[in-house]
Amino acid sequence: MIALTAADVVAATGGVLHPAGLDPTTMVTGAVVIDSRQVEPGSLFVALPGERVDGHDYAAAAVGAGAALVLAARPVEAPDGSGALPSVVVPDVEKALGDLAREVLLRLREAALEPGGSRLRVIGVTGSVGKTTTKDLLAQVCGTVGPTVAPVLSFNNEIGLPLTVLRADEQTRFLVLEMGASGPGHLTYLTDIAPPDVAVVLVVGSAHLGPFGGIEGVARAKAEIVRGLAPGGVAVLNADDPRVAAMAAVAPGEVVLFGSEAEADVRAADIRLDRAGRAAFTLVTRAGIGGDAGGAEEWPVALRLVGEHHVHNAVAAAAAALCAGLAPRDVAAALSVADALSPHRMHVVDRPDGVTVVDDSYNANPDSVRAALRALAVLAGRDRRSVAVLGEMMDLGPDARAAHEGIGLQVVRLNIALTVVVGAGARGIADGALREGSWGEEVATVDDIDAAAAFLADELRPGDVVLVKSSKDAGLWRLGDLLVGAGQVDGQVVAP
Question: Greatest CA span in the chain, whole angstroms?
């Protein structure tokens, strides 16, 4: 975070100082936070109102912990009656947070152009699947070259993105932003705050179809990141997805294609998997990619991430990094040592009792579930039992039933030994599996997470490979935590 005065915050947000006599030179020198427990000396505490928790109720605690200023929707007073807390009062706190981030990024861009500046590059990533993994890979690749700021977890919405921007300072070389959309216009809002120099679109898939009115609506919404590029920006598009590749028509400037197709500017060739399900491939780049005047290049990459689908994420990250100025050799080397950073995303744990848990429970849609099931089949191979614990895929609209039944077909075709379907919303998976020809003992249905935990405690045995997958709101991440932890007591593994 760059240092700001209270007057700077007022100018950026259109707010007013409270109390009126507050010194406008009051300095914000610490982090911008929305959780009073994260306050450090000099912080700006953003008092967001919420459905269950109102940040204004924690303003006094934030100031007591060292916050220099509060961004609030109404005047906030000390609970002991000692007077008003130092605040900038605005009509809409969420909008003001975005306005502040926009102003800070403008200042950082100006500073980056000065002699000795950081040459700041902003990289935005969107897509129906793979955003967080691609963001994590990009952060690690770019971090080998210069100071890099990227979101924690999946800070990709109207609150998370500004908070990420506000973590950047004058030394930041790369600002990697994950941009999510839960409806039309959302990416336009985010790119108005932080126009990317490099915009990556991974895939247009069937995640959260409901708010978009169908797959074509998803495509139009994802294209907003391309339209929102900064002047001179580059659109990095998936050559393997026709809906994404078609976004080249709305790109205001250069387009770079990535994927496995021969026409891709950055592509993966000779893909292969090891016994642990980790992919290796040859990174092939065309001449001149990212402004490099050299010829076409080929570099070996061996991923640490589990699942062939991560090749797509890695090639996308490579293309974005090349467009941000990195050399192909350095990109390939960095990808080969990059790890999975965010929890509940193909997190593989070998338990002491011989069970391998693949926790991919953060989110789910038909595309990502099929990819995870393929990874499960590879990990289990022919000598271990594969167990898929699947919950509901949310926000699929009128296609939800058919989508779940389609996953049931997939588990049979991949010969998954046991499928545990959790919750009524996912019941279509069991129906699809049974209709495809699964015997009854190969599919179990349970009502909730507690029932699933009890069932698995009795059912799992050494050598099993168990995948946990659902949308976040279905809550199977709690089951993932239970299975990974395995209820260890005094170093002994017991049933969860």
Answer: 75
